[in-house]
UniProtKB/TrEMBL annotation:
InterPro entries: DHBP_synth_RibB-like_a/b_dom, Sua5-like_dom, SUA5_domain. Residues 14-200 form the YrdC-like domain. It comes from the Bacteria. One of its GO terms (molecular function) is double-stranded RNA binding. This is Threonylcarbamoyl-AMP synthase.
Amino acid sequence: MAKYFDVHPDNPQPRSIGQVVDILRDNGLIAYPTDSCFALGAQLGNKDGMDRIRSIRNLDDRHHFTLVCQNFAQLGQFVIINNAVFRAIKASTPGSYTFILPATKEVPRRLLHPKKKTVGVRIPDHVAAQALLAELGEPMLSSTLLMPGEEEPMTQGWQIKDELDHVLDAVIDSGDCGVEPTTVVDFSTDEPEVVRVGAGDPSRFE
């Protein structure tokens, strides 16, 4: 059964955040709110967590997992960024964007796109998500909580707890979440390509 944490949207309770991080460090899988929609999260080295995300979402091996980072300095440890890309991403973070970039050796190989050796990264503009990342002290392996066959993610924590109680270890609820996933921008080639239009304004990358 998943533990349910009702977290204040502006001042997340440190005790609750600490308990969720303990679950993550114990190879747990969580659902948590972001500035776009709810997401699934696991610790970076948690292979079982990655497999559980694949199973819940029915994903194939070409899916780009995302490393959700606390800040730009942390993001820079896991992806290769040139000066032009640096400026574009810096101006758009934190925010509702996921950026696909070549990965550094810090990223476990199983998280990489099998052919491109790329990974998704993002910095959420969400108080509870940021509190979680600050306490964890490292990026979180993440994927949008969008169920197979559904067009929109679930927006309420109690609903997620109700429907996914048997496959999650924790649910963080800090109020209603959005229904749009992040806008995804692929920076792995010479020109940026908007590969998914979502909550972030895509016009700055078009």
